[in-house]
Amino acid sequence: MRKPKEYTSLFRSMSGEWKWLLRYVSRYRKEIFLYVVIGLLGIGMGLGSTVASKYLIDAVVSHSNETIAVTAAMVIGLAVSQILISAGTSRISSVVGTRINNEIRSNIYEHIVLSRWEDINKYHSGDLINRLEGDANTVSNSIISFIPNVFTRFAQFFGCLIIVLYYDPTMVFFALMSAPFLFFSSRFSAKMMRKFNLQSRDMNGKIISFGEESMQNLQTIKAFDLTRRYTNNFRVLLESYRKMRLDYDKFSIIMSICMSIIGLVVSYSCYGWGVYRLWQGAISYGTMTLFLQLSGQLTTSFSALVSLVPGAISIATAAGRVMAVTKLPCENDIDKEKAEAMLKTASEKGVTVSAKNVTYTYDGGDRAVLNDVNFSAAPGETIAFVGPSGEGKTTLLRLILGLVEPDSGEMEMETDGEIIEVSDSTRRFCSYVPQGSAVFSGTVADNLRIVNPDATEEEIIDALKIADAWSFVEELPMGINTFIGERGVNFSEGQIQRISIARAVLRKAQVLVMDEATSALDAKTENKVLKNLMLSDPKRTCIITTHRPSMLQYCNRVYRIGENGSLEIDS
Fold first, then answer.
1. Helix H or strand E encompassing 41
2. Which of 463, 544, 552, 454 is nearest to 501 (CA)?
3. DSSP-assigned letters across all residues of 45-84
4. Cα angle vertex 244, ends 241, 247, to 5°?
5. Of the candidates 401, 325, 335, the residue with the CA atom closest to the CA atom of residue 119
């Protein structure tokens, strides 16, 4: 009973993935319809050319000059039409296909970026890139080729079948001798193909993830003299992928040999039957040629229909992986109107951030990271969260930024008596300086303008001065137009931190959230930066995490996180 259950589960899973895919691609039904119409027209031309060839040969054999001229013109006309249709289809495929591919990849990227932080964070970035590129391409190709091919291949099969039935019904029996084998082998082959597709895509994701992480941490790998170990580990991954491919290739070769042998039996049976009928005088030479062409087309088209199975499995697998991402809950900016209405008042009055009895547990966590937490930070105030690493400081900042939602309690922002619950909508009030090298490839100006695209050069320089970054940016070969490499590779960590602080300043937000933002700065530079930040906007609310006691002298209150996730004012 186990195998039937496995097959039932397999086909139920694939059915669900195809239902989702068809709903997803319904927006492209006009393009699909166009492809189908063009494909059917091409099939009609091809079958017409085959039938016309029959009459041309008969005309040649009977020396009917008038008929020869007409049928030859017809054959040539149909052949030229097929060439033109093929060229037109190729062009339309390029124009429409690239648009659809871009739209689908854009849609998937949008879902990834808009998904709730905690949900999307469960996926490795390499796996997400694999879904965005490989799986998205498979899904888009299904729209521009696979789905229309289902209709055209069925049309070709039944077109050939009808013509053969018209001239000699017995020929159909020989042409379809392979049908029983193909039908009964399809269930087993479907299971193997499904298994291979899942393994292949998962392994590709692991290879991409490994490569991405090693490239990002190349300096660390070299510093610890781990280059040989990493190259060997990469070879191990590639070897695992190679073995998996070879195992499937063995299966494919065996299936191919069986299909080829059956194909030979079918072809020679059709050929022998045609010769026998010709010898009997029951058919003409033209009909014999027609039989040979159509029997081959009939067998080929039936095999083509069967070959849709691995394509359908591959597409279903890709669709399932895309579906898993696109079905994640998305941030909806539900309080957009209220937040935007509060922005003007907030810029004049400032923003108070508060937590009331907030408890939070990460998905899959066995205990609360934060437990019944309360704090408040008013305009003009600077508060700090301190405590051991891993005890919840960064989690508090994620709650403030609306990246995660509390299990219970309330996170609020208030300006001039108007209160709004913290969510993705309230990020409009916030600037953020994260830990690490949080810069992007591009110029210094590009990195700052990410948060304020309309910023003038003067505003950029002012922000750099507040962050004490202008002193070194001014000395760069191209100033603010100097290129920053991936992850700031051509800048020191301290310089990157100051550029990150300048970016936060340029946003001109009312709440500044800083996560160990001065850890790479010396005491003198740190002191200067913090003083500049406070003087630049007296109404700004600053919330920081730090391990450095020197920063606490600038704070109005310091909150210490306890081992049980509690929060108390540090004495």
1. helix 29-61
2. 463
3. HHHHHHHHHHHHHHHHHTT-HHHHHHHHHHHHHHHHHHHH
4. 150
5. 325
Model confidence pLDDT, tens digit, residues 265-279: 766 777 777 777 778
Closest to 274 measured CA to CA, from 283, 266, 262: 283
Q: What is the CA radius of gyration of the chain?
A: 34
Write out the two tokens for 126.
Answer: 């390499």
Rounded to whole angstroms, the Cα distance separating 22 from 18 reads: 6
- In the numeric block, which tokens belong to residue 318? 């890709």
Q: Read off the DSSP letter of residue 408.
A: E
Contacts of 309 (CB under 8 A, 6+ apart): 186, 189, 190, 193
φ, ψ of residue 229 in degrees (nearest 5): -65, -40
Residue 317: CB atoms within 10 A of its CB come to: 24
Q: Tokens at residue 5, please?
A: 């259950």
3-state secondary structure of 491: coil
Sequence-distant (≥ 6) Cβ neighbours of residue 198 within 8 angstroms: 317
Both tokens of 494, joined, read: 């301290």
Specify whether the CB–CB gap between 562 and 387 falls below 8 A: yes
Contacts of 112 (CB under 8 A, 6+ apart): 120, 128, 132, 325
Rounded Cα distance, 288 and 565, in Å = 86
> Looking at residue 225, what DSSP letter applies?
T
In the three-class reduction of DSSP (H, G, I as helix; E, B as strand; rest coil), residue 11 is classed as helix
**Phi, psi for residue 63 in degrees, rounded to 5:** 60, 40
Closest by alpha carbon to 456, among 506, 500, 509? 506
How far separated are the first and last CA of the chain, in Å rounded?
Answer: 68
What is the Cα–Cα distance from 256 to 250, expressed in whole angstroms? 10
Tell the residue number behind the tokens 């660390």, with chain if given: 220
Q: Which residues, in sequence order, are CB contacts of 312 under 8 Å at separation 6+?
A: 14, 18, 146
Task: Give per-residue pLDDT as tens, 126-159.
Answer: 888 888 888 888 888 777 778 888 888 888 888 8
Give the contacts of 471 (CB within 8 A, at least 6 positions apart).
none
Under the banding of pLDDT at 50, 70 and 90, the label for residue 98 is confident
pLDDT at 358 over 80: yes
Contact at 8 Å (CB) between 289 and 54?
yes
370-377 β-sheet, strand order: 370-377, 352-360, 408-415, 418-421
Spatial separation of the C-alpha atoms in residues 308 and 219, rounded to whole Å: 47
Answer for the pair 451, 506: CB distance below 8 angstroms, yes or no: yes
